[in-house]
Amino acid sequence: MSYLPYVIAAWIFLVGLYGLITSRHLVHLIICLSVIQSSTYVLLVAIGYRTGAAAPVFADIPPGTPAVDSVVQAVMLTDVVVEVTVVALLLAFAVQTHKRHGTVDPDQLRALRG
Amino acid sequence: MKRKTRTRFFLVSASVLAAVFLLGVLGLPPLGHYRGPYGDVVNALTVPERHVTDAVTLVNFDVRGFDTLGEEYILFTSVMAVALLLRRQRDEPRRRHRDHAPGRKGVEASDAVRVVSLVLSGILVTFGIYVVTHGQLTPGGGFQGGVILATAPLLMYVAGEFENFRRAVPRQLVHIAEALGACGYGLIGLATMAAGGAFLQNTLPFGTTGSIVSGGTIPLIDLSVGLEVSGGLAVLLIVYMEETLEHKEE
Predict the structure, then answer these.
(1) What is the CB neighbour count within 10 angstroms for residue B91?
(2) Contact assignment for B78 to A77 by CB distance below 8 Å
(3) Do A4 and B31 touch (CB under 8 A)?
(4) Domain range holding A39?
(5) How many domains does chain A have?
């Protein structure tokens, strides 16, 4: 039971990867990539979790109260920001691909064209 | 490669990946038994040494402020790249923006949608500014508050026509906001060097714990990140909307 979040993280990662491999639409593929990335959120937060500890915000609890790891939470925030930028950039590529090749099915994008 | 072959190949390698991953996580401490030490060190110095109460903001804007600078520039660069990719090509004719496909009547936003969106956009701007400015005290900060601020123009678009959205959110202004936010962070770093510290070393007085100006350089960095994120996301919104609306007209 205590390893369940790690297993869930692995499951989310693999499900996203499966969607990415079998994708028939570029936008679907990009969403699958963001599913893969969300597995890292689960993993990071699970690693920093401590049973019975408070959130690392000492506004209404006295300093020194046991709190969960604030470093992994900050890393997760970075993760979210990077994901947003990656998705925005890839969607722009998808729009351009549709304009140039008239399709968004990865299987029909056979060759690179200038 | 055929789809079936590819999927089979994937299933084999995925099961190997799953096995190796499970082997790896079994070596981690079980859930709830965090061993530290970095989180504990940061949590312990949050209030006594920096006079702030949100440890996550402390990590982002002070302890590893240099990494967050890089993170902010990832956002900046990718927003620029999206704007570059979706710019009007030379062979694309200039068109008037209309919010519906040709030969079809545009759907007017209903009064209910209009009222709710307009009321909400005012509340969201206030809430966004609150989240940005209280980053060092309560959960939140420049990244979260910036995203909340950028949803206000989106609601404005939902409430009315695209032209109104363009008037309310001039492209030039959001570009300036984004640029100011991006260079503000670097300038704060240079200013701390001019004050005799290291790059992004927190050299300002820390103030009283719980005050909105506590934490030295943290609230300043918070503001510049909030400006950068809200500006960047607004640029993304504008660029994508212009692109989609043009396509709808073809």
Answers:
(1) 5
(2) no
(3) yes
(4) 4-108
(5) 1
